[in-house]
Write a structure and sequence with these properties.
Blueprint (H helix, E strand, L loop, with lengths): L2 H6 L20 H23 L6 H12 L3 H9 L3 H11 L4 H22 L4 H19 L14
């Protein structure tokens, strides 16, 4: 079975006995429609994130792309090739790129969250320590990603 037929089911509406759920990447209709709705909610949150500096954009678009990859070839293709929304997704997929603005925002929000938990929520040192370790690892990953796609002559993503 090729990649495109796994996403939106058999081409031309063909079905085989016992494969009702396999027609949509092994996802039955209620789950498929739930994933489509989940994808659109995440697109909405991603678009809001384009205008509000406290909300991420790329994370929500990646979640939407995942949801569409499991439910709708058409919506997946639309989002991935979209002139505005798709650029970040294509850069991440091809080069592992996280834009500088997103890096700054993500690390800043993690730092603010850690300080908030430490100063106002934690009753001891264990929670801030564990949270700091997790957020530190996530921040290290984010900061280790390239900020721009490599030049055309450079080696591709490893």
């Amino acid at each position: 079975m090729d990649e495109t037929s796994r996403i939106d089911g058999p081409v031309g509406g063909e079905t085989a006995a016992g494969t009702a759920c396999e027609a949509e990447m092994r996802v039955c209709a209620p789950v498929r429609y739930g994933l489509i709705a989940f994808g659109w909610v995440n697109i909405g949150l991603g678009v809001v994130g384009m205008f509000l500096p406290v909300m991420p954009t790329t994370v929500f678009l990646l979640i939407a792309l995942w949801a569409f990859s499991r439910s709708s070839r058409r919506f997946h293709h639309w989002l991935y090739t979209h002139p505005t929304l798709g650029r970040t997704l294509r850069d991440w997929h091809s080069h592992g790129v996280i834009p500088p603005r997103a890096k700054i925002l993500a690390v800043s929000m993690m730092t603010v969250s850690l300080f908030y938990v430490t100063l106002f929520l934690a009753e001891g040192w264990a929670l801030p320590l564990m949270l700091g370790a997790v957020l530190g690892a996530v921040a290290a990953f984010i900061l280790s990603r390239p900020s721009r796609p490599a030049p055309l002559g450079a080696s591709p993503r490893q």
